[in-house]
Amino acid sequence: MACEKIFIRELHQRGLRLTPQREMVLSALHEAKGFETAEEIYERVRRLSASVDISTIYRTLDLLHHMGFVASVDAGDGQARFALTALQEPHVHLVCQGCGRIVGVPIHEVEPLLQALRARYGFEADLDDVTLYGLCENCRGSSPSAR
Amino acid sequence: MACEKIFIRELHQRGLRLTPQREMVLSALHEAKGFETAEEIYERVRRLSASVDISTIYRTLDLLHHMGFVASVDAGDGQARFALTALQEPHVHLVCQGCGRIVGVPIHEVEPLLQALRARYGFEADLDDVTLYGLCENCRGSSPSAR
DNA sequence: CTTTTTGTTGCAACTGGTTGCAAGATACCA
DNA sequence: TGGTATCTTGCAACCAGTTGCAACAAAAAG
Ligand SMILES: [Mn+2]
Ligand SMILES: [Mn+2]
Ligand SMILES: [Zn+2]
Ligand SMILES: [Zn+2]
Q1: pLDDT greater than 90 at residue A108
Q2: Cα distance between residue B91 and residue A113, in whole Å
Q3: Which of A36, A90, B11, B144 is most buried (CB neighbours < 10 A)?
Q4: B47 touches strand D (CB under 7 A)
Q5: Cβ of A123 and B116 within 8 Å?
Q6: Per DSSP, what are the bridge partners of residue B134?
Q7: Which nucleotide lies at the shortest CA–C1' distance from A51?
């Protein structure tokens, strides 16, 4: 867990504190392979300590998201999903409405759009939190499969 | 209200019914100048009939959205906002995090991005529901004003 | 006009997520 | 080491929005 060192340093820089709860959430995110719901991450943390509250999970995921360690994607089914992105280039997320798969697109692919919005509308877009919905290559041809 | 005729025709085409509640929501949306929350639209409808339930407002806004009459924008403050878009070209919405203003961008401005996603990722994006966050021209220079 | 069909509504319960607050814990310093 | 300032937590209440369901009402048929 190389990012724990970085995490602690960034916490200190912001005058925030390292707590067992924050360590457990970070650890749970390392266990998880891909995107998981807050409830799934909560279950992982409970295996480490039963007394943690779900609101602490949400608060910690939000903190990690704002620190750039975690991507948060609203998959359109009423539950957000979270995954570690530590050290990766920030990206836009594509959610397939057929199969539910989430793909990250490096933000430089979107640079032309950013420039156009800046030039035409004077708008400086922050693409850290953007999610686009549609159909992936697999799901485009075939009949839409259940999620 | 030119769109009421179209609304009735489209309802019939889908085997759905015209109800007083649906007429009142459409009328409330015509009264509203710009984007309003469900609660604000609910208040407008209540002035016409006190017994309508807020769940009916949500269900009707959702229906109108799916029929393409209404744009729905998550302004990032925990409340969605709705506005009539009848007959307009579909567009992406820009939300300024400084002043809260919502601007519509015609979808053809975003066409190059769509093509890139199609070519590079095989992903067919549906941009009807996209909202981008950032800072508008006014709010970029000055210190961020309260919403 | 009456009946029948089927879509719609109000209501209450529920969902994922947020928030105010007092108790508890961390970091820092004497 | 103990004391203090301040951050964080668990908890319970709350929020916007959704949903199951039985009563109701629009449309169509007779
Ligand atoms: Mn956040
Ligand atoms: Mn619009
Ligand atoms: Zn797919
Ligand atoms: Zn602004």
Answers
A1: no
A2: 14
A3: A36
A4: no
A5: no
A6: A125, B96
A7: D10
Check if residue A130 sits with its Cβ under 7 angstroms from strand D.
Answer: no
What pLDDT score was predicted for residue A53? 98
pLDDT of B145 > 50? The answer is no
Give the tens place of pLDDT for each residue, A19-66. Answer: 999 999 999 999 998 999 999 999 999 999 999 999 999 999 999 999
CA B89 to ligand 2 centroid distance, Å: 9
Contact B90, B147 (CB under 8 A): no
Give residue B97 CA to ligand 4 midpoint distance, Å. Answer: 6
- d(C-alpha B93, C-alpha B47), whole Å: 30
Which ligand has the nearest atom to the CA of B87? 2
> Is the same domain home to B123 and B143?
yes
pLDDT for residue A142 is more than 70: no
CA of A147 to the centre of ligand 3 (A): 9
Indicate the pLDDT class of residue B146, thresholds 50, 70 and 90: very low
- Please choose, from the candidates A138, A145, A134, the residue with its C-alpha nearest in 3D space to the C-alpha of residue A94: A134
- B70, B106: one domain: no
Strand D atom within 7 Å of A97 CB: no
CATH number at residue A68: 1.10.10.10
Within this chain, do residues B81 and B120 fall inside the same structural domain, yes or no? no
Q: CA at A78, C1' at C14: how many angstroms apart?
A: 13
Look at residues A69, A86, A103 and tell me which one is the last residue of a structural domain.
Answer: A86
Q: Identify whether the C-beta of residue A25 lies closer than 8 Å to the C-beta of residue A38.
A: no
The CATH number of the domain where B141 resides is what?
Answer: 3.30.1490.190
Asked if A125 lies within 8 A of B116 by C-beta distance, the reply is no
Which domain, by its residues, includes A5?
1-86
- What is the distance between the terminal CA atoms of chain A, rounded to a whole angstrom? 32
Question: Does the C-beta of B58 come within 7 A of strand D?
Answer: yes
Q: How many domains does chain B have?
A: 2
Question: Are B5 and B41 within one domain?
Answer: yes
Shared domain for B23 and B74, answered yes or no, is: yes
Model pLDDT for residues B67-126, shown as the tens digit of each residue:
999 999 998 899 999 999 866 777 899 999 888 889 889 888 888 889 999 999 999 998
- C-alpha to C-alpha distance for B24 and B41, rounded to whole angstroms: 10
